[in-house]
Amino acid sequence: MSTIFGIPTPALYGQILIGLINGSFYALLSLGLAVIFGLLRVINFAHGAQYMLGAFAAYLLLEYAGIGYWPALIAAPLIVGASAIVVERTMLRRLYGLDPLYGLLLTFGLALIFEGAFRYWFGAAGKPFSPPSQLAGGVNLGFMFLPIYRGWVVIASLVICVGTWLLIEKTRLGAYLRAATENATLVQAFGVNVPQLLTLTYGLGAALAGLAGVLAAPVYQVSPLMGSNLIIIVFAVVVVGGMGSILGAIITGYMLGVLEGLTKVFYPEASSIVIFVVMAIVLLVRPAGLFGREE
Amino acid sequence: MKVLKKLLFVLSCSVLAQSAYAQQASDGVVKIGILNDQSGVYADFGGKWSAEAARMAVQDFGGKVLGVPIEIVSADHQNKPDVASGIARQWYDTEKVDAIMELTTSSVALAVQGLSKEKKKITMVTGAATTDLTGKQCSPYGFHWAYDTHALAVGTGGALVENGGNKWFFLTADYAFGYSLEGETSKFVKSKGGQVLGAVRHPLAANDFSSFLLQAQSSGANVIGFANAGLDTANAIKQASEFGITQGGTRLAALLFTLAEVKGLGLKAAQGLTLTEGWYWDQNDENRAFGKRYMEKTGRMPNMIHVGTYSTVLQYLKAIQKAGTDATEPVAKLLHEMPVEDVFAKKGKVLPNGRMVYDMYLFQVKKPEESKGEWDMYKQLAKVPGDEAFLSVADSGCQVTQ
C-alpha cells in the first residue's frame, strides 16, 4: 500500500473527503455571514444561534407536528428567516448608521439569549434526530465508507452556494442589492425600496444559517451549544476569505475544512487551532483576506 | 465562702456557655458550594441538576444543623480551572462557604482541591473522574464520591475484554480527565491480555469525530474506547453508527456515559452500549421513590452524579452533626470514619486517601422496543464490587495518608 508522509493513501483520501464534508458546513455558514456583512455591514454574531434554531426547528417540527426532514428543509429556514426579519425590523435596523460594533454587540447578545433559553428548555445534552430513511446507510468507496447522508450534504451545500452566488451576481435582484450597498440614496431615488431590500437580505442570510442547521441535525447532536462551537471557526473562515466576499467565503470554507481534516490525521491536538493560525498568517500577509478588496 | 460559691457559679456558667458555643457552626450558617459546568458540554451530566439534588439533601436533613441554617450556593465554572479557582477563593474568603462539592471536569477538580487543601477546606468531588484526586494529588480534606477512571476501566473495559474485545483504539479528550481515563483503561486491557493499537487526542467540544473514527477504523481495532464525556461522546457515538462502524462489528466503549447522555442521544443510537454507573432509578423501591421525588422537582431522572451529590451533602451534614462543629479537621476525620449508608450507597466506606468505595453496576442500554417508558433505559448486567472497582490506598499513589 502506498503512503504519503507515513499515512496510507486510502486513509488520506478518506480524510480529504471528510474535510470536504465539514467544509460544506463552513461554506454554507460563512456564505450567509458574508452576504449579511457584504450588503448590510453588520457582523452577525447571531449566525451560530440561527444555525442552532434551524436544527431545533427541524427537531420540533418532527416531534410536535410530525413534519419530516424534507418539508423541514424548507420550513425551518423560513421560520428562522422570519424570526430574523422580526429582529431586523425591530432592532437591527436602528443601528445601520452607527459603528459596526453596535450591530456586533446586539447580535452577540441575541445569540446568548437564544442559546440560554434553549438550554433552559431542552438541556445541554441535546436531542436525537435521525437522517431520513431515503438517505440512511452508506456506500463503500473502497478507501472509505461514505454515509449517503454526508454525500447529500456536500451536494446540497454546493448547489446552495452556487445558487446564492448566482442570485447575487447574475440576477436583477442581486444587482439592486449590490447597488444598494454602494450607494443606497441613489438606488432609492430610482424607486427601489432599499430598507425592504436590507430586511430581505438579513432574512436570507439567517435562512441560510437555518438551512445549514437542518442539514446538520442528523449529523451532529441537536444541542443548544452546536452553534457556539462552530461560529468562531466560521468567522475565521470569513476573515480568511475576505470580509464580504461571497465567493471567497465559499472557497475558503471548503479549503479550510480540508486543511482541518488533514490536521486531524497529522497532529490532532492542533485541529482546533489550525484555522486560526491560518487566519493570523493571512491577516499579516493580506489584511483584506484572500479574496477581499482593499478599501 | 459566699464569694467562692459565686465564683464557682460564674465559672460553671461560662463553661456551659462555652460548650454551647462549641456546639455551633463557626459563622452562623453552614454554606455548601456546588461548583460545576452549568452551561457547557457537561451541563446535563451534572449542572444545575446537581444543585437541585444538594437542595433535596438539605431538605431531607431538616434544613438546619447544630441549630444554624444550611445554605446551598452554586456557580458555573465553565470548565476552566482559572475561573473555578477564582470562584472558590471568593467563596472561601468573603462568602463564608464551608465546603465545595460536585466539581465536574478533572482539571477543575484538581485545581480546586489543591486550593482547598491550602485553605484547609473540605471538597467532595462527584462530577470529576481522575484517580489523581485520591492519588498523586490527594488531600486530607479531599473526598471523591460516585466514580473514577479506574472504576470505569474495570467496569466497562472489563466487560468488553471478557467478551472478546481485545484490540483497542482510543478517542481521548485532550485534557487531564481523558489522559487518566485512557491510561487506566489501557492498563486494565493490557493486564487482561488485550492490545492497545493506538489513540488520538481531540480537543474538548470537537463537534466532528468522523476523521478520528476513520483513523480508529483503519487501525483494525475491534473496540473503540471513548475516553471523553458528555456531548463529545454523544456526537462520537452518533457518527460511529453513521459511518457504519458499529454495523461492521466494531464495538464502542463509552467509558463515561450516564443516563443524562443516553437520554440526549436517544435509544435508537445508544442501544446496546455497555456502561458503568453507580446508581439507576429502577433498581429497587428506594431508588424508584427517590427518582420519583427528583422527577417531580426537576422533570428528569437523576444519574449517579446527581444522586452522588445528594449523598455527599447528606454525609457532610451528618459529620457536622456528629462532630458538633463545622471546623474542617474534626469533620474531615469523621468523614473518613463514618460508613456511607443512604439512597446512593450501601455499606460505603471512605479510604484514608478520601476515596469512597461502594458497589457499582454494569448496565446495557435497552433497545427502543424493550423500553416501557420515557426513562426506562437500562438493563442491569452485573455488579462491580467496590473493592475491585476502586484502587486500594497502596496502589493509589497517595502520600498524605495520616
UniProtKB/TrEMBL annotation, chain A:
The keyword Membrane applies. Keywords: Amino-acid transport, Cell membrane, Membrane, Transmembrane, Transmembrane helix, Transport. It is found in: Cell membrane. GO terms for molecular function: transmembrane transporter activity. It is a multi-pass membrane protein. One of its GO terms (biological process) is amino acid transport. The chain crosses the membrane at residues 12-35, 42-62, 68-88, 100-122, 142-168, 200-220, 232-259, 265-285. Its main location: membrane. One of its GO terms (cellular component) is plasma membrane. Signal peptide: none annotated. Belongs to the binding-protein-dependent transport system permease family. LivHM subfamily. This is Branched-chain amino acid ABC transporter permease. It comes from Microvirga brassicacearum.
Automatic annotation (TrEMBL), chain B:
Residues 30-366 form the Leucine-binding protein domain. It comes from the Bacteria. Residues 1-22 form the signal peptide. The keyword Heme does not apply. CDD domains: PBP1_SBP-like. Belongs to the leucine-binding protein family. This is ABC transporter substrate-binding protein. It comes from Microvirga brassicacearum. The lineage of its organism: Bacteria, Pseudomonadati, Pseudomonadota, Alphaproteobacteria, Hyphomicrobiales.
